[in-house]
Amino acid sequence: MAVFMESCFFISLCLTMFAGKSSGATVPAIYVFGDSLLDSGNNNFLQTHAKSNYTPYGIDLPGEPTGRFTNGATGGDFIAQLLGLPHPPAYLSLSEASRKITTTGINYASGGSGILSETGTILGDILTLDEQINYFNSTVTNDLPSILSSTLARSIFLISTGSNDYLNNYLQPQFSNISQTYPPQEFANLLLDTFEQQLTRESKNGFEERKNHS
User: Fold this and answer.
1) Which of 50, 131, 128, 143 is nearest to 94 (CA)?
2) I need a surface site. Which of 65, 178, 203, 206 has the fewest CB within 10 A?
3) Nearest-angstrom CA–CA distance, 209 and 214
4) What sign for the dihedral angle of Cα 21, 25, 26, 29?
5) How far is CA 40 from CA 5, 179, 206, in A?
């Protein structure tokens, strides 16, 4: 039972990580990573079965469905609103020029993705969590280095991931043999170790960029 509960922790994992603390300071930006719980339209630009750019998705938003896997805004959108920020746009929806002027946050999440790179591939193309972090690092180092050097420490990072590593990977033996390789507890440990490495890479690269421009 303990093993099962530890595994379930990842099924609905939603981590809010503050890159820095400053009493009374406003939050300049929010950066969003993860799966369909937070995807705001990145999958619209990918060849994948994991799409939500059709009705009834988005029926509570003005205009056409946006690619969010919900009837309206995502959790990331609501948090941005509470912080007085605009909804962070999907990274793949931005032109190269737009990426250099979008300073209030970006959404890198991709429906179907998980902690492991192979998770979600049965659905087609997705942005793996590693790829999402790579895009974020590109934002930090290539698109907005001078601006983010002074604001990244006060920004919020929102991540929702882990459920698809079970739903679209471990529990799909007809598509993946990973359950034959890892018993349940070892698989949970693999997710924890991999996720820790990803968070370390994300925060380290952001810190190095701030240090280089300080």
Assistant:
1) 143
2) 203
3) 9
4) negative
5) 29, 31, 23
- Supply the pLDDT for residue 205: 62
Statement: residue 14 has pLDDT above 90: no
| pLDDT, mean of residues 64-87 | 94
**Average pLDDT along the chain:** 86
User: What size, in residues, is the chain?
Assistant: 214
Beta carbons within 10 angstroms of residue 104's beta carbon: 18
Residue carrying the six token digits 């690619």: 67
Q: Which of 34-38, 61-65, 132-136, 179-183 is predicted least confidently?
A: 61-65
**Bond before 56 cis per omega within 30 degrees:** yes
- Amino acid type, 124: G
**Is the pLDDT at 211 greater than 50, yes or no?**
no
Apex 119 CA angle, 164 and 34, nearest 5: 55
Residue carrying the six token digits 């994992």 = 13
- Cα–Cα distance list, 134 to 122, 205, 211 (Å): 22, 10, 19
Q: Which residue has the tokens 């929010």?
A: 30
CA atoms within 13 A on the CB side of 194: 19
pTM (2 d.p.): 0.85
| Single-letter residue type at 18 | F
